[in-house]
């Protein structure tokens, strides 16, 4: 039975690092779906209501479940104003799921982002 893990939080909160490490530990039995990869790199889509990233992520989650992955990890900022309905639908469809929110201060977010190759500060 496939388990769903959703990791949400602000930029620089550690969700991507945690998701990648979880996938490393679980190996090929885990499918990692990153909101940033889907939205920014594959679709070049805005992070606004109606973004096509929602449909693509929903399809990837369904695909992983149909293929029998032991764990599907969905990670991203996944802000409630854009992804709330999608997340509620996922939770309803899956029943028990592991859903975590990385709650760090804005100061921590800024500090961590300044260590990235491309900080969000000063970029649109």
UniProtKB/TrEMBL annotation:
Organism domain of life: Bacteria
SUPFAM superfamilies: P-loop containing nucleoside triphosphate hydrolases
Protein name, as recorded: AAA family ATPase
Lineage: Bacteria, Bacillati, Bacillota, Bacilli, Lactobacillales
């Amino acid at each position: 039975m496939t388990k769903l893990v959703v990791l949400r939080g602000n930029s620089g909160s550690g969700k991507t690092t945690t998701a990648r490490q979880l996938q490393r530990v679980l190996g090929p039995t885990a499918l990692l779906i990153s909101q940033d990869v889907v939205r920014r790199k594959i679709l070049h889509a805005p992070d606004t209501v109606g973004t096509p990233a929602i449909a693509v992520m929903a399809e990837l989650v369904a695909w992983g479940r149909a293929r029998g992955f032991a764990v599907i990890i969905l990670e991203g900022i996944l802000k409630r104003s854009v992804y709330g309905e999608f997340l509620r639908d996922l939770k309803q469809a899956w029943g028990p799921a592991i859903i975590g929110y990385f709650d760090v201060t804005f100061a921590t977010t800024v500090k961590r982002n300044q260590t990235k190759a491309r900080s969000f500060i000063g970029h649109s």
